[in-house]
Write a structure and sequence with these properties.
Elements (H helix, E strand, L loop, with lengths): L1 E2 L6 H12 L18 H13 L3 H9 L3 E6 L2 E8 L7 E6 L10 H8 L12 E6 L17 H14 L5 E5 L2 H12 L4 E6 L18 H16 L2 H8 L1 H10 L1 H15 L12 H14 L2 H11 L3 H9 L8 E5 L9 H7 L3 E6 L7 H4 L1 H16 L1
Parallel strand pairs: 4-5, 4-6, 6-7, 7-8, 8-9
Antiparallel strand pairs: 1-2, 2-3, 3-5
């Protein structure tokens, strides 16, 4: 394992500013808002902030406050943060982001997780925190060969935790982090004490009887998921089938990369008008910067091709069931991209031991509701630790 420090050359930042200044803006229909994609008025204002107010060097310094390393696992470079708790008996946890996320998602939870004593919590709830970038993402990218699906990533995470000397640990994640964490529980049953997720996908089994008696709230969740499958799957279709073609535009245009990611923060976050209602603007821009500065728009999309490719496989991958030995805990946020039905969750997660629904928050739980996520992970970990 090699220590790692982020140090982006000034020439890259100058090139970014030059490209933004030379942006060729497209025409758009008037009065359609967000219905057909990210509105140009919003994006122009965001770009002005990006170039005039956002401070990458401050973000870089914040990231560099945490110990970072790289290591090669199964032929892939893996970059990760490893922050040990001052409490010697802390529980190890590996936190896994999704797309379009990065380790930036977890910056606001590192302190409370590793040092609860300093954040008004119980020292017994402390964690040693490992936060890797998925192969192909940011400083773990690009991968050098095909075949990096979620199960292979889960095996790499098991190896990473072994190299760090952690014999018993908890896995946590949302989005792709959910899939990887659940697969990690399957792949490393001797060492995974529990799996905590902040995303759950429940789908009808095909048995008509389970549709009877659904509440109005559950029916609304089904209607949302049907709408999402019809209208919200555009990103998945292109990344699962033609990631290379998409990458030309996103790797060449910083505004294109910005738009591609910010649309998802708005669509999947708990907000109405703009994603800043749910997530700090600088945090979102730092996340975008990691994709841009590392040129990993295309490499990060490969996980869709490798793991899903076609919609039928996508549904099968995300919807379970997930039989495993380790207990599973779920924190459910109401504005997530998918809306799970509790009555079906035990079929999807046979070892479900903890379920908590919250009244606000969306897909990016660690960014939107860090205190709730920390509290929920602590509650679940007490169950599997004791």
């Amino acid at each position: 394992m090699q220590p790692f420090r982020i140090d982006i050359p000034e020439e890259q930042l100058a090139d970014l500013r030059r490209r933004i200044a030379a942006t060729r803006w497209p025409a758009e229909l008037p009065g359609v808002g967000w219905e057909r994609g990210i509105p140009q008025k919003y994006l122009r204002e965001l770009v002005e902030y990006w170039t005039g107010s956002y401070d990458w060097r401050a973000a870089e310094a914040e990231l560099n406050r945490y110990p970072q390393f790289t290591t090669e696992i199964d032929g892939a470079n893996v970059h990760f943060l490893h922050v040990r708790s001052p409490e010697p008996d802390a529980t190890p946890v590996i936190l896994t982001h999704g797309w379009p996320g990065s380790v930036v998602e977890f910056l606001d939870v590192i302190g409370p997780l590793t040092d609860p004593r300093a954040h008004g919590g119980d020292p017994a709830d402390a964690f040693h925190v490992v936060i890797p970038h998925i192969p192909g993402f940011a400083f773990s990218g690009p991968t050098r060969e095909a075949g990096w699906d979620c199960r292979r990533i889960a095996r790499a995470w098991a190896e990473l935790m072994s190299r760090l000397g952690y014999e018993r640990y908890v896995a946590q994640g949302g989005d792709w982090g959910m899939v990887i964490s659940l697969m990690l529980g399957q792949e490393d049953p001797e060492h995974v004490a529990g799996v905590h997720v902040n995303m759950v996908v429940t789908m009808p089994s095909g048995d008509p009887s389970e549709m009877a008696g659904l509440s109005e709230a559950d029916q609304a969740k089904l209607a949302h998921d049907a709408y999402f499958a019809e209208d919200g799957f555009g990103w998945q279709k292109i990344q699962a089938t033609r990631p290379h073609t998409l990458a030309y535009g996103l790797t060449d245009s910083p505004v294109g990369q910005l738009a591609w990611i910010m649309e998802k923060f708005r669509e999947w976050g708990d907000c109405d008008a703009a994603p800043e209602e749910a997530i700090d603007r600088d945090r979102m821009l730092t996340n975008v910067m990691l994709y841009w500065l590392t040129g990993t728009a295309g490499p990060s999309a490969q996980i869709y091709y490798e793991t899903t490719h076609l919609t039928e496989q996508f549904v099968k991958t995300w919807g379970g069931p997930w039989p495993m030995r380790a207990p599973v805990g779920a924190a459910v946020f109401p504005a997530d991209a998918t809306r799970p039905i509790r009555a079906w969750a035990d079929r999807v997660l046979p070892t479900l031991a903890h379920w908590q629904e919250y009244d606000k928050g969306g897909h990016f739980a660690a960014l939107e509701q860090p205190e709730a996520l920390v509290s929920d992970l602590r509650t679940f970990t007490r169950l599997v630790r004791d």
